[in-house]
Amino acid sequence: MTKKFDSRCSMPNNRTEDENQWPLVLGVKSPLLEPQGKNFTGRSGDKTWKYSKFMFDDKCGATVYIMVESAYVTEEWPKGFTPKFSWGCTLRKTTGTTFPTVDVIFNSTVADMSTYPGLKEEWYTEGEGSDRRILVILKFPHFDTSNSVILDWICQAKVDATIPGTTVGIRDVNLILYPIGCPKGKYGGECEFNCTCPQNATCHTFNGACKCPDGWEGEFCDSRQASGGSQTAAVVLSVLLAVTVVGGLAWCWKRTSDRGKYQQMFQDL
User: Fold this and answer.
1) 22 burial type by CB count under 10 A (0-12 exposed, 13-18 middle, 19+ buried)
2) φ, ψ for residue 229 (rounded to 5)?
3) Exposure of 213 in the CB half-sphere (CA atoms within 13 A)
4) Of 46, 73, 156, 206, which has the most beta carbons under 10 Å away?
5) How confident is the model over 33-89, as pLDDT tens digits?
6) CB 60 within 8 A of CB 8
7) Is pTM beyond 0.85 here?
8) Pick from 232, 241, 89: which is nearest to 173 by CA?
């Protein structure tokens, strides 16, 4: 299946800074957690979001996996306890990015790998085996990267606490997502794939589709475009029009000349 280059979610692949694993930067600012704000890029060694993955599809959609390994939650919540989770966001700045669906699995196990492609086995084997794994799945139907900001939202979330009838919540969390693209020659949610486009073509950040330069076409920009049938037809029509005009002028001139001869003949009579 030929990959389609959709400019609505394309990002320039010319980044030179390789410490950022994602082609995106997620900024988080919260009065309670991060009052000064913090940026997440998925780079190696970042323990805050050590277990996370961006996955793009061919229709400008994206799936984000975030795994939280927590001994504290294991202690606070009894084994088998599944709290209720709710969330909501409001637009702070309008973009073309649509709201995602959010699923939370509070007791995630290695068996979830068969349901959610992209999860890694080390997410379940590293750390203490008894620590609770919480898996968050965000599915974006459409990402819009045509502006300097992909999304700018104010969000809040609420989770049931251990004491019945009480909840733990967080609010006024400002989430801002910026597009930065991948290094040249790379694409994918973690810039993990190699582009196959020729050097003079643009490689799509999501699916590696090629945007061909003028005069070339095809999935890999390896076919020259037709020489331009419409231009050739225009030239032919122009020539025919010129011949018609010249012929018409000649015919009118001849008729005028003949009429002059006939008039002279009548005068001579």
Assistant:
1) buried
2) -60, -35
3) 6
4) 206
5) 778 888 887 776 555 567 888 899 888 999 999 888 776 667 777 666 777 888 889
6) yes
7) no
8) 89
